Amino acid sequence: KAGVTQTPRYLIKTRGQQVTLSCSPISGHRSVSWYQQTPGQGLQFLFEYFSETQRNKGNFPGRFSGRQFSNSRSEMNVSTLELGDSALYLCASSQGGKETQYFGPGTRLLVL
Amino acid sequence: DQQVKQNSPSLSVQEGRISILNCDYTNSMFDYFLWYKKYPAEGPTFLISISSIKDKNEDGRFTVFLNKSAKHLSLHIVPSQPGDSAVYFCAASVGTGNQFYFGTGTSLTVIP
Question: Cis link prior to B79 (omega < 30° from 0)?
């Protein structure tokens, strides 16, 4: 089975712009979660989508949003980018229950 | 507020010896725990999991111990190998879905 894929792998944006990141889960997985990783902060949970519905949400501002399509692919959008949004954004997929999540390679976002 | 803590940022161990990575948590409602290994420029790779109804789970060279009364989780790697050198994250979740709280990671170096 193919693993979790994320596109693009690297991205450079400027402050005030918006960005959309994409995640394709493992075939058959219906849950997709997004995490932000910054130095010293570890992985911070953004949100989880399951069957096209947001099931859990972390403590991030409304500039961070997401959605999930009927084929379980998910997108994450960040509007009005700030310098502090520079991070590695990881998505993870699972079948849907309380179980192991499998991570993609991440998208490295740099905001200038 | 960091609900999952890994207080040792780094650990060095001789090849063939035991590596013990520790993790503490504050939320007694956490009911599922995971350990991940991460290499630079890659997403985290799942290692081993444990449910709160157990106190030990083994998978080959990896064993996870859970002490619920102490709110403490540990990962034992025996014997340690140079290829185990990576950053190790513990993660915990509660409730429905896959919202995981991650520690900040411990960088393990196995010296040949």
Answer: yes
